[in-house]
Structure formats: structure tokens, C-alpha cells
Description:
Layout (H helix, E strand, L loop, with lengths): L1 H17 L12 H11 L6 H10 L4 E4 L6 H8 L5 E4 L9 E3 L5 E3 L1 H8 L10 E4 L5 E2 L3 H8 L5 E3 L7 H10 L5 E3 L19 E3 L22 E3 L12 E3 L7 H10 L5 E3 L13 H13 L5 H16 L5 H17 L3 H11 L11 H14 L8 H14 L9 H17 L6 H16 L12 H13 L8 H17 L7 H15 L8 H15 L13 H11 L5 H19 L11 H11 L12 H9 L3 H13 L18 H10 L11
Parallel strand pairs: 1-2, 2-5, 4-6, 5-7, 7-8, 8-9, 9-10, 11-12
Antiparallel strand pairs: 3-4
Helix pairs in contact: 1-2, 3-4, 5-6, 9-10, 10-12, 11-12, 12-14, 13-15, 14-16, 15-16, 16-18, 17-18, 17-19, 18-20, 20-22, 21-22, 22-23, 24-25
Amino acid sequence: MVKTLRMLAELKVTQYIFExxxxxxxxxxxxxxxNWAYDxxxxxxxxxxxxxxxxxxxxxxxxxxxxxxFNQENFNIARAQRLRRVTIIDLFAATxxxxxxxxxxxxxxxxxxxxxxINDEHEPTLKTLRIYGNGLKFQEDxxxxxxxxxxxxxxxxxxxxxxxxxxxxxxxxxxATLRKLDISWSGVKxxxxxxxxxxxxxxxxxxxxxxxxEDVMDLFELKKLRVLKITGCNKVLPELxxxxxxxxxxxxxxxxxxVRTHAKLxxxxxxxxxxxxLTVENISCCIxxxxxxxxxxxxxxxxxxxxxxxxxxxxxxxxxxDTDFKVCCMFYISVIKKWNWSWLRVCAFHNLQIIRSRPxxxxxxxxxxxxxxxxxxxxxxxxxxxxxxxxxxxxxxxxDGQEFYKNSNDTIAAICEEAAMVVMSCNDLQSNTPxxxxxxxxxxxxxxxxxxxxxxxGNHYLKMKLINGVMSYATTTSMSYDQIFTIIKxxxxxxxxxxxxxxxxxxxxxxxxxxxxxxxxxxxxxEEWMRNILMYLINHYISNIDVxxxxxxxxxxxxKVFLPILLDRxxxxxxxVIFYLLAIMKKSEARNSVNENEYCIKSEIKEIQKSIExxxxxxxTDHMEVFRWLCRTSESKDVIKWARWCLKTSGLELLExxxxxxxxxxxxxxxxEQEKDEQPDAKRRRVE
Length: 688
């Protein structure tokens, strides 16, 4: 968390420098922060008004020039600094430094470009120069001129720069201090003069081709050379049968390449070498091989992926011992902890899913540690990044294991909070991972005793995200019944845990939205078992919200949904709506009654259905007319009580003849509760 706050602060300082908000303050960022800040600013299109503050506030030592950056603003910034590293990418974009020669070939004036970047008035500080040449030729005598401008260079990279053999010889004489030289893809045919680079330690000759052995003989005069890259030369010795590598530096990667590219090779001599051949014959050997490749200087992704594939096959085998199984799982966990490479974590998380097949191998504390490692190592949920999506899919599958929900409250809460973060940051709740995280939120909240963390209790944004998912269900065809029920269950349990705050402004707003959206679901559940599940959930929900929210059901926009169904005589849909309203009424009464025994409402539903049969709505009448009509005409105490409750909950006043004397005192306590919820200056509206 501290690192995150620091990064935010550094980003804000960078932004203020860029926007000239610190022009009256005298300070200068250190080298590390300056280089970081400049990398950020490069993306913001530096203009003249920004350049002055950048030169005053930053102490830049490394600059990159790419497409769109070969302009005077960047050149001014560069010349004001004491640069140690300069990288030039895509010379074709530096059009003001390109010319056509007599042969109609493009030539780059690299000397003039570097003079715009390097201030020759300063003491020479440039140590590293990298130029991506794009196959372009430079003007004559460019090597000598650059060596005079930057005499202290120790690392020179010229990939794809067109260099003749004569120019290469001049380069060696003029840059005698070089320790690293990259001439890959440069077209050099002879290494004459390379012996003069007596301090050279690293030489990259990728994709260079030499015709005769004499062309590379000077190479063997380099006594300090440690790394020689000659990949891509596409040359092999087709008849090679014996290779003696004794006393030479060679690792398994290079040895494997030699064996693979020389079909007739029969023997490799490795005297005075400690190299160890690696195999994948069992889990132990696979882990040993994987660790070797992970620690090597040049990590071979393909080898590691193949080893992980072998490990996955071993783990799926039911005959694999518990000991080997656990060792392998612990290896995956160590890889996730130690290496932050997305491709490697994708492999490790994918393979670790099998841990759910033998959860009994891990004790209470090991499971805690596993959850912590998974949650810390998961990247931010980004639907645009395939590696992030893959890791999240594997991680949440692992965390769905029932064994984690028998662990400590802290462990369960950590899972729940991280799942909530995914839900709150996603664009679509019906996507696989967010939908699965909703399931885990519900699962976690059912397991936490007694209460979840403060991040979840009263989290209005999370609850509204879920409620919006319910609201969109009516227009979304791709969301399954399981998904919508899981969302509703999660809303219910969140509301339960936040029941003490049911009258807060946020809770009331959420409850009104949810009640209104649930009414709209009536038409979508045609199966009886679906309605039963929905009613069970609604009964649970309404017991934890403020009763004044019930008025939302009778607002005209909601009533338009369920009132036509209420008048659909003797239908299953009609029974469902009556059941819904009766259940809410009963819950409301139960709060004000000492006796909260179970009730049977089947007979009441039949009474109400029978009473509604003879009602005929006249066009232009109020949308609550059916309830007024029941108050005036029904002979059933239960029917009148229900109709009166609906009218009063909606905020309507009973008219003359609608309140029968013998039922006038019914449920006084409930009426008192509803009146208490209203504003003191509110008036009942009368519909004539």
C-alpha cells in the first residue's frame, strides 16, 4: 500500500511539473525520479511551454527518441542534461535528417542528429549509445566524428545500421574503450581490427554471415570476451559428429540447441565442466529442470512451458503419491511468489487448479498462506488483458474450494473483499469471472461469523453494482437464471448484514431500486420453482429493509408491471403477485407484533382471487382502483385488510365507504409505523 501511495504522489508531482504549477518553486528531482518522470511525460506530447520547466526541475540521464520525438522541444531538453544513455529508435521518423544520394538511396545524417542531442560544451558523460538504423547508411566519416563527441562510450549498439567492413575496422580503432558492442543485422562481413577492442566483454553478431574462417580470426584475440551472440547466422556443420566443448562456458540451453541443429552429432565432450543434464522423467526432475531454466540468464519460455505441461500430466495421474503432489503444488506457489512474469504466472496458476483434488494434504495454516499468496499475486482485473483474465479465472476456481471457507474469518474476508473489488471494477456482471466472484461473495458472507469486514458492510457502490445487474436482466438475454439468482442472493445477504442501517439514505435508495427492479422480474419467471425461489429470497430481503420502502411497489411505474397481472383472473402469475404483496404485508406486521408465528396465506390468496374476479376497471380511473373496490365490496376481513394495507402503504387516504367500521382498527400498530416514516409536513394525497 505504501508503494502505491508513493507512486501516486510521484505521478502527481510529474503532472504539476509538466503543467508549470511548480514554476515558482526552486527544486530538482534526483536522477532516478527524473528519468521515471520524463518517461511519463513522453506520452503527454511535450511542447515548448513544458520544456523549460522540465529542464529546470529534472536531472535526466537517459533519453529515448522515437517517432514523434525528433523535435526542437526534446532536443532542447536533451542538450540541457548530462546524458549517460541515449537510444534512437526508428530513424525513418527523423525525416529532417534524411537525404537521398545519387543512387536514390536514403542516407541518415546521424552526426547532425547527435549534435542536436549531445551538448559538446559539457564534459563528456555519454556512456551508452544505441541506434536502431532501419538498414540506413550514414554519411562518410561518421564514426570518427561521433567518437570525438562521445569519447567515453563503453556500450555501443548499432543493430540494423548498414556498416561496411572498412567502417567496422575504423569503429574498432576509434572506440577502444568499448566493453559491449552490438553489430547485429549490420551486414559486416569481416571482423578485421576487432582485436583493438581489448576491453570488450559482450559482442552481439546476430544474423551476420562470414565466408571464410580468416574473417573472424581476430575474434580470438579478445581475452576479456565473456558473451558472444551468433544466433540467426543460419549456419551448421552438416557432417559434424564430435564436438569438444571442454573448458568452455556452455549451459543446457546452448547444448540443446547444438544437438538439435546438428543431426549427425554423436558425441559432445564436456571435460572440466560442471554442466548437469536435465530431464523430465518424474516430478522431482521436472522441478529441478524448471528451477535451472528459471535461474538462467536467458530464460527459455518454451522449455519452461513444456516442463509445466509434463508436471500437469503427472499431477493428473491418480497414482502420483501425496508427497509428490504436495511438493509440486508448493513449487507452483513458490513460482507465483518469486517471479512476476505474466506468462509464467499464467502457467503456474493454471497448473495449481488441481490442488482442489487433494485439499486434505494442506493444514490450516498452509491454506491461509495459499490464499494470501494468490490474492497478493493476482494482477488488477483488466478485461482487455488476456493474461490477467486467465490468471483470475484460475485463481478464483482455486478459491472456490470449500476447504477455504472452513478457515479463519480473516481468510474468508480476504477472499470476499478481493472478489468484491473485481465485481466493482468490471464492465459486465454476466462475464465469467465477475459472475463467479458474485457467487464467491455470497458464499463468503454465508461463512463469515458473526459479521463481515467494514469494506463490505454498508458498501453502497457494491450493492448498487449488483442491483444494476438485476435491473438490466429484463433487457439482457444472455444472463442465466443461476446468475440472476446468485446476484439477488448476494444483495439479500449484504442487506442482512447491513440491517442496522436500513433507514440510512443509501440503504433506502438501494432498497427502492431493488424493490422496483424485482417487481419487473415477475414476467420473466414462468416456472413454478423459479417463483418459489424468488419469493423465498424476497421474503428474506424485505425482513431487513425499512418498511417505508414498500411504497415503492405501488408507484405508478412499478404498478404498471404487476397490476395487469393482478387482474389476470385465476392465473399462476396473479397468484404470484398476490403472494408477493401478502408476504410484504405480513413481514411489515411481524415487526410490530409480539407474536411472529408462521402464517399460512394460501387461503387468503384464494379469497383475494375470488374477490377480484368481478372487478372491471374503467378507463381513466386511478391505478389503485382495484384496492378501493375491494375495500368497498368484499365481505372478507382478510381481503379488506390486505387492500387497506396496499392503499395506505402507497400513501393514499381511504375514502368514504372504503373503511368498514368492523375493520377500522385492524393493524393500528402497522399504520402507526408507516405514519412515523413519513415527513411531518407531508400530506396524504386524495384520489377522487
